[in-house]
Amino acid sequence: MKLYSIVTAGLLILLISSCEKDVLTQLPVERTDLSDIFNPKDKEGVLIDEYLTGIYAQLPRGFNRIGNNLLDAGTDDALSGDISVTAVDKFKTGQWGPSDLPENPWTSSYSAIRRVNVLLENIGKSGIPQAKKETISYQARALRSIFYFELMKRWGGVPLIGDKVFVLNDNLQLPRNSRNECVDYILSECEFLKDKLSPTLAANELGRVSRGAIMALKSRLLLYEASPLYNPTNIVSKWEAAAKAADDLIKLNNYSLEVNFGTMFTTRSNKEFILAYQQADNTSIESLNEPPGYKRAGQGITNPTQNLADAFPMLNGKAINEAGSGYNAADPYKNRDPRFYLTIFHNGFSWLGSPIETFIGGKNNIRIGLGSGTKTGYYMRKFMTTSGTAAGFSNATHNFPIFRYAELLLNYAEAQNEVLASPDASVYKAINDIRKRGGSTGVFAVGSLDKDQMRAIIRNERRIELAFEEHRFWDIRRWKIAENVLNGTLKGMKIVKNADQTLTYDPNAAVQTVTFDVAKMYLYPVPYVEIQKNSALVQNQGWN
């Protein structure tokens, strides 16, 4: 059947131009009566397709979405290169609360949920074939589950409204459901939809949810639920459920690791992406994040920390502080895991035919009109295309990966490792496959690591493999380590060019003082404006 792809050119222009605005209100379909959208005489369902596409437009779009900064700049992995304090910085400086939330998808998520419910209530009246009605309804329900998960991972229990479409005279004083009730609701939807959604998608359905997407949501949800923040007594059955959910998706054999880690992120369709936010080709990633100092006028807004740089092992797989690693503090970027070079711009990195200079006074450490350059000695490299010229950018594919296969392997490895007394061959295989695809020559022999050692390896692999994909922010919370990694000082690399042209590296330069209040910051505060509107809402602990 013919479904309108989310990458339809005209629609994409509308989606991109609306950004922080209410996306669907930019679409003509929102100015059309429901009776026209769900018309019994309409056998094609063009307006229904557009309506559904508007719901898709509310999916997490990643990248530089918080005041032009990455969510990861709110973690120990990066900070904003802006000279002023940005919204995302507040996550690390303690300057956020119910009236000042750096990111707040509460309203947009419930708006998207309402649109799903409007569709479900009215699609039966339309004249499209029954099979298409079912396909669209199942996709809409899957999207609703994702929106609820996005709410829940920030706030815990939130109001569940079922299929209800509220009107003006309805009672909107709704209490929050418990976290367990929200988990059970999402899981029940996942179980129902996994056999209803298509296991594969046609070319014109790129960006739509498939069976794999809803199974990936289930995997992530169960992994979170098994994690220390939500499983303080370490109930093993929760880890077993998380391991099985990831393994079930792996065994579909519909996805696999892409051969090339670098080009995967600039390829619209590939075998590793399970679900990605689709948008028109653009130059946003490069113009916002490329090192300044080139004619292309990159802003260098994302500055990875030394903390992240140090997490990347050597080419041989050994940590930089591990015996036999070969790490040389006087030449710190030699023989590193290849993913390091595809994730981080460092001093000496060849870009546009010349080496990047992030030493003090270097050509890429000065931002014209904005003060100093990189705060950390680094810029973000990931997601960027190598196309274009020294004078200008070329449009390129930048589709944010919401779910990808590497995450599922890591989900499985983490959960299975926690189930067992010591990691089995399947855990080693998942980690070794990811390392080998990344270009590392260092793999682990079965039996060479105990459970605690493997846990540390898995957590570090998540950090470097999924860097800047909005996982670190939530991982340090669910692992309950934010109180450790976000209290103290984040580090950068200070590089001085000496008179004899040699370089001196100081990897312990203090670049940002961070603080995390364990009493309240593991969950977001319910926005003040929402509590003002709905007196039945109870604020999260510590935020009153």
From TrEMBL:
Subcellular location per the Swiss-Prot or TrEMBL entry: Cell outer membrane
Native organism: Pedobacter frigoris
Record-stated family: Belongs to the SusD family.
Pfam name, any one: SusD-like_3
PROSITE patterns: PROKAR_LIPOPROTEIN (PS51257)
Keywords: Cell outer membrane, Membrane, Signal
Positions of the RagB/SusD domain: 279-543
Keyword Magnesium among UniProt keywords: no
Keyword Chloroplast: no
Highest taxon listed in the record's lineage: Bacteria
Protein name: RagB/SusD family nutrient uptake outer membrane protein
Gene3D superfamilies, per database record: 1.25.40.390
GO terms for cellular component: cell outer membrane
Start and end residues of each SusD-like N-terminal domain: 48-223
Transmembrane segments: none
